Amino acid sequence: MLKQPIFQADSSIDAFQLMEKECEIYILGSNPRSVLFGVYHACKKLFGYKWVSFLSKEKAECQTHRFEPARIHSGLMKRRGLVVENHDDTAFLLKLIDWAGKHYINELFFTFMLWDKVRGTVEEEIVKRGLSITLGGHSMHYLLNGTALSQKEQVDFTDDSWKSLIINKIKDYDTKESINRISLWPADIGIEGEQHFLARYMEFTEQIQKQLPEMEVEHIAYNAGLSWDMLELPDKLESSKTVNTLFAFWGRNYKQPFFKEERAYEALQKWCHSAKANQMQVTIFEYYSDHFMLGDLFPPLFYRVRDDMELYSSLGIDNMVNLIVPYVPKENANEKDNLYPWESLQLMNSYYFARTAWGDAFEDIEADFYSIFGKKQNEVKKVLSKMESVLSGVSKWNIPLFPQRLIDPEKMESDEKDRFVIADLKNCKKEIETLAGIPNQKIDDPYTMISFYVHYVREKLDEYLVKWNQKKECKR
After folding, report:
1. Lowest mean pLDDT among 20-34, 56-70, 224-238, 337-351
2. Taking the model in full, what pTM does it have?
3. Cα separation of 115 and 99, whole Å?
4. Radius of gyration of the chain (CA)
C-alpha cells in the first residue's frame, strides 16, 4: 500500500513525488500538470534526457537511479512563466510549448492580438500539458479597436467611456478552460507629470477583477518611456487589495546585482511591503531572453539568473516571468544577420531561468547544460562564462541612450557619451577577440551555434566601433 503524499492544499502549487514499489514507479502530483512534470523528471533520471536546446539530439540511455521515497519536489517559484511578445511563428511556439513543459514552466503569456492569431494552433498543446495561460500585455489599443485613440497616445484612465467596452471584449473570450489570468497593461508610452496615473490604472484593473471574479487579474508597475511615475508606488498610495502586482523594471544593467539599481530596488521593496500588508503578491518580470533590450550583442545570463533568484527569494517573492522577444534584423541586414540563431540563443537564458525557478541546484543545471557539447563542454563553458562577464554590461546603455541602444549609432546624434561608448566597445572587443569562433554557414547542433555566435559578436563589435567612431569624427 502506497502512502499518500502530503501536498499543500492549494492545487495550483506544483509538487510531485516519485515512489517505487517492486518494479513499478508511481508518480503522484498535486495537480495533473505536476504529474507530467514528474514523468519528465523520471525520464531525465532514468534515461538521461536533457532537453536543453532545440538543436541538441537526444539519445536515451538507461541509467540506474533510486528515487528518494520521502522527497516531494516543489518549485522554488510558484509562478514560472514565459512571456511571448508578438512573435506569431507557430512552429517556434509549438517547440517552445513542448520544451516549457519539460522544464517545469507552468505559464505562457500572450498579448490578445497574438492569441487571436495563434490560438487555433497552440491552445490544445498548452491545455493538454496543463500550463496556465495569461492574456494581456500592451493590448489596450487592440481591444479598443478603432476608437479615436492613437497607438502613439497613452490611454486616458480618467475617461470611463471605453472601460466597459474593453471588459466586455475580455468577457467574450472563452476563458473558462484555458485562460487563467488577465494582465492588461497601459500603452508602452511614458507619461509626464501625471501623479495619479498609476492609481487610476490600478482602479481599472480592479474593475476588471470585479467583473471577472473567477480570473486572477494583475496590474503592471513598469517604467514605460523611463517614466518613474509608472514604476514607483507613490507615498500616498498603497498597493491594491484585490489585484496582484507585476513589477517590470526596464533597462537594468545585467552586469550588476539588482540591488545596485538603487531607485528601482527601493521601488520594488516598497511594492513588496505594501502587497504583503494587503495579502497580495508581487511577480518579477525579467528580460533575460529579450533580443530587443539586449540586442545582437546578446549575453548569456546564467550567473545573473542564479543571483537574481536568490535575491528575489530573500525578499519573499515567489513569482517570476521571463520575456522572450525575437531578434529583428535591421534594414540592409547582411547574410549573417539573417542566419543569427536567436531562437536557440535566447533559449540558453530561458533554460537557466526555468530550472533555477524550479529550484534545481546550479551545479546540476550547469552539468546538464554543458553536457550537450560532449567533449567540447569545458571549452564552451569557458567561452560562455567569458561572454557573460564581458557582454552582460551592454544593457547599462539602454537608459542613458534611450530611446536608442548601444547597437543603434546610426539613429543618434553625437554627444558627450560617444567616447564612453567607444571605450566600452573597445574593452569588449579586447576581451572577446581571443575567443575562438568560426563563421559557420550551417548551424545544426549546439557547438556550431556557439561557434557562430562568438564569431558574430566579434564582427558586430568591429562594426559598431567603426560606426561610433564615424559619429565622433562627424562631430569635429
Report:
1. 56-70
2. 0.95
3. 19
4. 23
